[in-house]
Amino acid sequence: MAAAASQATRKLKVAELSAKIFGNSFNPTGARNGNYILRQNFRGEHMLRYYLSQREINLMKTPRLSRLMGEKLYDPDEIDRLNVIERRKARGKSTPKKGEGKRALLAKKKR
């Protein structure tokens, strides 16, 4: 019994020295601690680069900026949207003007 106990304490001392040498934490009881979180890479810089600052958000509002500066900015999404609307109007499939919809036509027939 005494030999097994001394062997166990020797293993603990070796593990403690090994942890000290290699910069690991020594946790003989296996208690939970936050070392796994501390070992992870710091994410702060990455998150700061991912989310836009308030200044960048304001610069993204280009239509308002272009009106203030008097410039015409090229927006391919807006041009595509206008082309789709134009094609739908040519086929007679666009949205009706105010007061010319289905409900307005039904109200006119009832009169």
TrEMBL record:
Q: Which family does it belong to?
A: Belongs to the mitochondrion-specific ribosomal protein mS33 family.
Q: Can you tell which superkingdom this protein's organism belongs to? A: Eukaryota
The residues the entry assigns to the signal sequence are none
Its primary localisation, in coarse terms, equals: mitochondrion
Q: Name one Pfam family in it.
A: MRP-S33
Q: Which UniProt keywords apply?
A: Mitochondrion, Ribonucleoprotein, Ribosomal protein
Q: Where is this region: Disordered?
A: 86-111
Query: May I have one GO cellular component term?
Result: mitochondrion
> Which cellular compartments is it found in?
Mitochondrion
Q: What is this protein called?
A: Small ribosomal subunit protein mS33
Q: State the InterPro entries in the record.
A: Ribosomal_mS33
